[in-house]
Amino acid sequence: MIQSNEKTVGDRLATFIEHTGLNKAQFAKRADMDYAHLFRILKGEAEPGIDSIRKITEAFPELSLNWLIGNVRDMLNPSAKDYDALRNINLWNMSKIFSAASVIELFQREFAEWKMLKTKMMSLEIHDESFKQTLFGILGMMQHERRNLVITFSRIRESDERMLSKDVVPEGVEIDDAEQIHFQTLEMQIERFIDFEKNSLSQQLHNQFLEKQNGNTY
After folding, report:
1. Is 2 among the domain residues?
2. Are 203 and 184 a contacting pair, CB within 8 Å?
3. Which residue has the higher pLDDT, 91 or 65?
4. Closest CA to 66 of 76, 52, 55, 79
5. The pTM is what?
6. Is residue 4 part of a domain?
C-alpha cells in the first residue's frame, strides 16, 4: 500500500505526479489543466477547485480522492479487478462472520446514514448530481471500511495472531481496546462527514464546489 504523511493537497499531488513518472507539464497536459494553476497548487499558493479535482481524477482514475483531499487511506484506488476480488472476499467473510439478523441490521444502518446524508445535502441546497454522487461514493467507502473492521477483528479473535496485526492492534494494547479505538474513530469520521462539520472532508469539498459555482477557482 502506498501512503504518505504530506500535510497539504499540493504535497500529496506532487507525490502522485512523481509516482506517475510524468513531469509537471506532461501531467498538466494530460489532466487538461492550466500549468500555472497546477504550479501554484504544488507550491501551496492555491487549492484545487472542484473542476481541477474532476479533471485530475478523470485523467488518473487510480488516484484516490479521499487521499488527495483528506489524506485518508491509500494514494491509489484498487483496480476494477481488485474491487471484484475484494467484493467476493468480503461477501464470503460476511457470510461466515455475520448472522442474517446482523447483516440486515448493518445494511439498515448504512441505509439510514445514506438517507441522513441525502437530507443534509437537501438542506444545503446541493443539487448537482455529479457532486452528490461523489459524496455518496465517499460515504460508501467509509461504510465499506467499517465492515472490514468487523471482519478484521473477528479474524484476529479467531486466530489470535497478534504478531500479524500490529498495524491494527499495537503491541501492548488489548484487542478490545484497539477495536473500540478504531470503531470510535471511524464512526466519528462518518458522523462528521454526514453533518458537514467544520474541517470535515465533506465540508472541504462543499466549500470548493461553492467557490467553483461563484467563479473563484479554476
Report:
1. no
2. no
3. 65
4. 76
5. 0.54
6. no
